[in-house]
Amino acid sequence: MKSEKTPPPSLVQDHYTTLEVASMLGLAVRSVQLMVDRNELEAWKTPGGHRRISRASVEQWINARTGAGGKASSQPAGSGNGAAGAGAPARGRGAPQILLIEDSIHFQNLVTLLVNQHFPGAALHTASDGITGLAMYGQIQPDILIVDILLPGIDGATLITTLRSHPQFARSRLIVVTSLDQEKREPYAFALQGVTVIHKPQLVAELPAILAQSLPAPTA
C-alpha cells in the first residue's frame, strides 16, 4: 500500500492521528511514523501538514499480526491450537498471560513446550519482531514478558527502553533471553540493569524455575 497519498473524500473522516494509533497499539509515536515510512500503514498529510492514518489500514495491520496467518499468535499454553483472544486485554481472563517476543522459530517452540509442560493453565502469546511485540504488549499487558535481545525491526534493548516509558510496564515481570555471552551483552547493559537474563543454552534448565517465581504452580 502507498503512504502519504490523498484519501478519497468518503474516507476523510475514517482515520486516526499518529498519536491515536500510537496509543491504540501501545507504541511510541516514532514507531508509528516508521510503520508509515515502511508502507505498513496508509497515511496522508492534511493541507496543514498533519499526518492522518487510515482506520482500515490500522485494522488490517492488527488483523495480519494477530490472526492465524500473521507473525503473532495467541493460544492457551495447554491447548495446542485454541485461541486465547488475541488483542483482548489480559484483565478478567483469569489465566496468567505470557508474551514471548522472539524471532527464532526454534526458541518459540522450545518456550511453548516448557510453558505447556510446567504451566498448562497459562496463555502464551508470541510475536516474531519488535514492532509487533510492542503492539501486542499494549493489547495484552502480560504478567510475564520474555524478550530476545536481537530482534528484527526494533532490537530487544530498544524495545525494553520504550516499554519502560509506559506506566503499565511496571506490572510485568521481564525476562530477557539471549544467545550473547556476557562480554557481547555489554552494548546492551543500559537496558539489562536489574533484569533477569537467561543465556539460551541454559533456557531449559533455568526458565521454568524463573517462571515459577511469578506464576502459580499448576494444580493436580
Structure, described:
The chain is 35% helix and 18% strand. Helix 1 packs across helix 2 (29-37) and helix 4 crosses helix 8 (203-212). It starts with 14 loop residues before the first strand and ends in an 8-residue tail after the last helix. A six-stranded mixed β-sheet has the order 4-6-5-7-8-9, with helices on both faces. The protein is α/β, with parallel strands linked by helices and 220 residues long. It is globular. Mean pLDDT is 76; it is low at 6-12, 67-71 and 78-92. The protein has helices at residues 18-25, 29-37, 55-66, 105-118, 130-140, 156-163, 189-192, 203-212, and strands spanning 15-17, 43-45, 51-54, 72-76, 97-101, 123-127, 144-148, 173-178, 196-199. It is built from eight helices and nine strands.
What's the SSE blueprint?
Blueprint: E1 15-17, H1 18-25, H2 29-37, E2 43-45, E3 51-54, H3 55-66, E4 72-76, E5 97-101, H4 105-118, E6 123-127, H5 130-140, E7 144-148, H6 156-163, E8 173-178, H7 189-192, E9 196-199, H8 203-212
Parallel strand pairs: 5-6, 5-7, 7-8, 8-9
Antiparallel strand pairs: 1-3, 2-3, 4-6
Helix pairs in contact: 1-2, 4-8
Give me some keywords for this one.
single chain; 35% helix; 8 helices; 9 strands; 3-stranded antiparallel β-sheet; alpha/beta; 220 residues; globular
Summed up:
By secondary structure, this protein is α/β, with parallel strands linked by helices.
What would the principal axes of the Cα set say about the shape?
globular
Strand order of the largest sheet: 4-6-5-7-8-9
**Strand segment tally:** 9
The end-to-end distance, rounded to whole angstroms, is 51 Å
How many DSSP H or I helices? 8
> What percentage of the residues does DSSP assign to strands (E)?
15-25%
Structural class of the secondary elements?
alpha/beta
The helix content, as a percent range, equals 25-40%
Q: Which residue ranges are poorly predicted, with pLDDT under 50 across at least 5 consecutive positions?
A: 6-12, 67-71, 78-92
- Topology order in helix (H) and strand (E) letters: EHHEEHEEHEHEHEHEH
State the major sheet. Answer: 6 strands, mixed
Averaged pLDDT, please? 76
Taking Cα atoms only, what radius of gyration do you get, to the nearest Å?
A: 18 Å
